[in-house]
Amino acid sequence: GRYFIMTTRIVAIVRMFFEDKTNRSIGKKYYEYKELCKKVQKYIDYDYEDECKVKHYFILMTIKNKWYLPSFTYYYIKSLGKE
Q: Least CB-packed of 6, 13, 24, 29 within 10 Å?
């Protein structure tokens, strides 16, 4: 249960970040996303990473390995489709 709550909250934080439609440059948004991931990283319990959904695994692995650009690109493009 604890793992499910943690991953669900992390995914929610990432989604909420991209739902913010304030006019910022893509560079500024990427910098803010990296800072957000650095703050969230300390709360991730990687012992449960094999049990999660693919989408959650993708987010956890990009944060764990500090590969911020792939997840940023995915969610940025996804957020453009919602406009």
A: 24
